[in-house]
Amino acid sequence: MMTSVDTDLIRVLSDPLRLQIVTLLAHETLCTTHLVEETGARQTNLSNHLKVLREAGVVETEPCGRFTYYRLRLDVIASIAGQFADLAETARATAQANVKRSCP
User: Fold this and answer.
1) pLDDT value, residue 6
2) For residue 7, what are the contacts with CB-CB under 8 A and spacing of at least 6?
3) CB of 9 closer than 8 Å to CB of 76
4) Neighbour-count burial for 36-75, b at 16+ CB within 10 Å, e otherwise
5) Which helix (H) or strand (E) holds 60?
6) Do 59 and 19 meet the contact criterion of CB atoms below 8 Å apart?
7) What's the pLDDT score for residue 1?
8) What is the pLDDT of residue 31?
9) Closest Cα to residue 87, out of 1, 2, 3?
10) d(Cα 82, Cα 99) in Å, to the nearest integer?
11) What pLDDT does residue 15 have?
């Protein structure tokens, strides 16, 4: 059985600004204004990245007056963490068993 990681989610999280957003949201729920202040990114750029994160299911929104708050979807973060944990366990078992494909 081949252990794999969700490549679409990895692509989404591989962008430095999106990873910074996810890291900030791991600590607290924030609105766009807070994220602009914390990241130094322009609001339009930040909004585009938040849209990508929303569409990937990484964050969810909560409207609050004229502001929108963002928070991580813990199930998605736990899922990707679990996929990496499975991959690490497979690599550990492979190293211990000294699994090596022979060359033709």
Assistant:
1) 81
2) none
3) yes
4) beebebeeeebeebbebbeebebbeeeeeeeeebbebbee
5) strand 59-64
6) no
7) 46
8) 95
9) 3
10) 23
11) 96
- 100: Cα separation from own chain's centroid: 32
3-state secondary structure of 68: strand
pLDDT at 58: 95
Please name the residue that has the structure tokens 């899922």. Answer: 79
CB 31, CB 64: distance < 8 Å: yes
- Residue appearing with tokens 């990245």: 49
Per-block average pLDDT, block size 10, for the chain (104 residues)?
Answer: 72 94 96 96 96 96 95 92 90 89 88
| Edge-to-edge strand ranges of the sheet holding 59-64 | 30-31, 67-72, 59-64
Q: What is the pLDDT of residue 3?
A: 53
Hey, what are 64's tokens? 């609050």
C-alpha pair distances (Å), 61 with each of 5, 67, 79, 101, 102: 26, 10, 20, 47, 51
